[in-house]
From TrEMBL:
CDD domains: HAMP. Coiled coil: none annotated. It is a multi-pass membrane protein. Keywords: Cell membrane, Kinase, Membrane, Phosphoprotein, Transferase, Transmembrane, Transmembrane helix. Its main location: membrane. This is Histidine kinase. One of its GO terms (cellular component) is plasma membrane. The keyword Phosphoprotein applies.
Amino acid sequence: MIKFPAFSMRQSIFARLVLTYIIVVIPIILLGVYLYQWSYQNASNDITRATVKQLEYYLDGLNREVEWMELQLFNTVEDGELSKLSATWSLMDSAEQRKSLNELLHRLTSFQNSSPYIKDIFVHIRTINKTVSAVNGVQPFDEVRFHTFYSRAGTNESRLLLWNNALHLSASKQSGNMEELPILNVQIELDSDKLGKSLNQINLYPDSGSLLILEENGFTIRSHPEADGSILQFVQAASATDDNEFQMEMSGRSYHLNKVHSDSLGLSIAAFLPEETVKRPLKTFYNWGLLFALTSLLAVIAFSYSSYRFIHRPLLYLVQGFKRMENGSLDAPIEHERRDEFGYLYARYNQMLVRLQSMIDQDYKQKMMMQRAELKQLQSQINPHFLYNSFFILNSLAKTGDVDRIELFTNMLGEYFRFITRNGEDHVPLSEEVKHSRMYTEIQKLRFSRRIRVQFDELPREMEGIRVPRLIIQPIIENAYEHSLEKKAEEGLLRVTFERRENEACIIIEDNGEYMDDSDIVALQERLAGTAPSHESTGIINIHRRLVLTFGDESGLFLSRSELNGLKVVIRIRLEEENDHV
């Protein structure tokens, strides 16, 4: 049981805080701040509700106006007289042609005058090579506009199309053959200036402003074209989020922002208002609050100074000590002469550093010794069966007098034993480990070239420099030969592939052996996880332990049924995010 030292009241932080809170009029200050914030919040909420209502009302009206335009647009496309004009143009004499065009122009003019937001209406009639405009009359066929709005018809864009820095509505009349171009296209160009002026109706205050934003591409119409461009950029970015209310600092001023989105139009409307407009009704209250704050300044200074000296600064020393400890520095104790509560904490902190350093040294050394011992154990396990078969192959080659293959085989065998017996390094680049494993499969090909086929993929370049413990791939391949492929009567297959994922590298070894059922795989998985009773410390258990010791618990060997119907072993190596090194 921990015994705390006895503190005198004069040295107690609690006593100092009690004395300080008696002197400082903190409850009154907090009450004044609360009242001011409450009043400001109420005023802000009232303005927000009124602004949101105005924005919703404006969008509803604009949506009804666009729906009416779309109805008239499709009525125009399906107009019988227009269809007759496009179909029988070549059969008409010049008088009938002029009459039909004049009637069409009259309908377009009436359509344009029906809405203040329509700047112009175009009918592009491909079959007569004419474009009729409500403003400019009959003109030669405008291929650019026709192909622009025909090509965008039926796409996933919003109802309002942006082209040439203006919003448009468009519809086409198709011919009987769907592979042909449309007979005609009707295009409505909206008046951006009038849309901008219409935004003024939702500006409740002289200093407020509003913007209409096409969400798909950020096109913006402003009620005040001369508004600060930085405000425009901020509102455009904010409108891309789901929040309906914002606070921001821009060009030395604070702004209050609201926005409403219309899914049907693909539009958002945002209104901004300077914070001083919101705070203007609270100016008198603010002045009284400022006077009260000035009279309380001395008390606040006294409270701040005592808090800093008796609490903040001692606590800061402790926080800095913990930060140093998090960064791995365990040899920087806190020097102190205090005898209060912080003095007790400093002393216990210094004792904790000593104990932690001792425990880390002990645990680290144990892990390193265990890792080196297991590696040495694995290195010492030269498979007698493999050694016997190697000499048998060498004897067979000598009998046939195949000197070239004898030289090749002895070189490969020498490289193989040099790698597994060298003691210089515990970790090697993955490229060397893969090279050794590939050498092992080449040796085995001399034995099983007719019965066992090997698919050994190339190591990706970005994985070559990863440093791994030695002998983590070849023992697994050897296990596949010994327990699965050597016993297979028909053609065997060994496949080694590599995968580079976001924060890890994977080496996948699988075969098509038929001598391991699902229960055997489950038993191996349990032994790797340490849930099965086993004293084995070699083979795949040894490899799995070394990978976990080196790279952490999320690394190691993971077993499953292969698509080839044999065993699939995945060697998973977790990497650091910044440089992809362990």
